[in-house]
Specification:
Layout (H helix, E strand, L loop, with lengths): L4 E6 L3 E9 L1 H5 L14 H8 L3 E4 L11 H10 L3 E4 L3 H17 L3 E2 L23 E7 L2 H11 L4 H11 L7 H4 L2 H14 L10 E2 L7 H9 L2 E12 L2 E12 L12 E7 L3 E6 L4 H16 L3
Parallel strand pairs: 3-4, 4-5, 7-9
Antiparallel strand pairs: 1-2, 6-8, 6-10, 8-9, 10-11
Helix pairs in contact: 3-4, 4-8, 5-6
Length: about 300
């Protein structure tokens, strides 16, 4: 596959677009080209100027609205570009609209990097598991809380454990969304909406974060052979689905209890068998791979 980088937009460096191609190595090293004309005034103008065939949308998650990622993806599809995102918001707040628009314009709307980085979660359905019914799933899907709980078990304070997660690059400067369970809740909603076909709202998901756990309780349970994990659950109930995110005390023999560091896992309960997927200690390159994998799926010749 031949490709060229036609545009980059960041909070720090603003908008850069050149349909003839930018130097990605220079940009990775912080050398943005000087503008030779007027700066694009909005997202649409920037994308039009780049004449991009594919948009990678990696803006920060706004769990309550899904913006501005929804508008970015909608604009890309309207301009005839495939839309690939690592942002869960558009799935939770506008999945049906964006999927229908992509089908209408004959472009791809892909989102593998939104849950468990580059692990094939969404793409394994339906091609890999045709004619099955997904009845529910259970998982540990938030790396930050897993790192924090692991570090507290080792004797660090919550504050020290959070700094450790930030140093690893899995926690934001403000880790509220992780510690209060919002990130995991949005992931549960995204999985239920796409894989189970149920338009779950965030307010319908029972959510409890890890802030109420005491450091001493976490350590004493670990010494007794049990571990706290922030567990995500979904179970089909008739036409709906019951979902929850909350700390659970797991026995040492539970596969989810054995997850260390940034590792995550999910177990799918299908009508014919159960299927578990574990991602071992991913870094930011794993998210990058999820975007790359979607790029290959979008542009490869059938």
């Amino acid at each position: 596959m031949r490709w060229r980088l036609a545009g980059v937009a960041t909070r720090r460096n603003g908008w850069v677009a050149d349909a003839d191609g930018l130097n990605p190595i220079a940009i990775l090293n912080g050398h943005f080209p000087s503008s030779t004309g007027p700066q694009p005034q909005n997202f649409r103008e920037w994308l039009e100027r780049s004449r991009a065939d594919v948009l990678f949308e990696t803006s920060s998650l706004d769990a309550q609205t899904g913006q501005p990622a929804i508008d970015h993806i909608r604009t890309a599809l309207e301009l005839g570009a495939h839309a690939i995102t690592a942002n869960k918001g558009p799935i939770v707040h506008a999945f049906r609209e964006l999927a229908a628009l992509a089908q209408q314009v004959k472009k791809q709307f892909l989102y593998e990097a939104t849950v468990m980085d580059g692990t094939p979660i969404f793409s394994v359905f339906p091609m890999g598991l045709p004619a099955t019914e997904l009845r529910g799933f259970t998982g540990v899907l938030n790396s930050t809380t897993n790192v924090v709980l692991t570090e507290v078990e080792k004797g660090r304070s919550f504050a020290e454990a959070i700094r450790r997660a930030q140093a690893l690059g899995v926690a934001e400067t403000d880790p509220t969304a992780d510690l209060d369970g919002w990130d995991a809740t949005v992931k549960v909603a995204a999985l239920a909406i796409v894989l189970m076909g149920v338009p779950v709202k965030l307010e319908q998901i029972q959510r409890t974060g890890i802030r109420e756990l005491s450091e001493e309780k976490i350590r004493s349970c670990r010494a007794a052979g049990m571990r706290y994990k922030l567990v995500c659950r979904a179970e089909r109930r008739g036409e709906g689905v019951d979902c929850s995110v909350k700390p659970e005390l797991l026995l040492a023999g539970d596969p989810l209890a054995n997850l260390e560091g940034t590792s995550s896992a999910i177990r799918f309960d299908l009508d014919v068998f159960g299927l578990s997927i574990v991602e071992h200690n991913p870094g930011i390159d794993a998210t990058g791979y999820g975007l790359l994998a979607d790029f290959v799926r979008a542009v490869k010749i059938p």
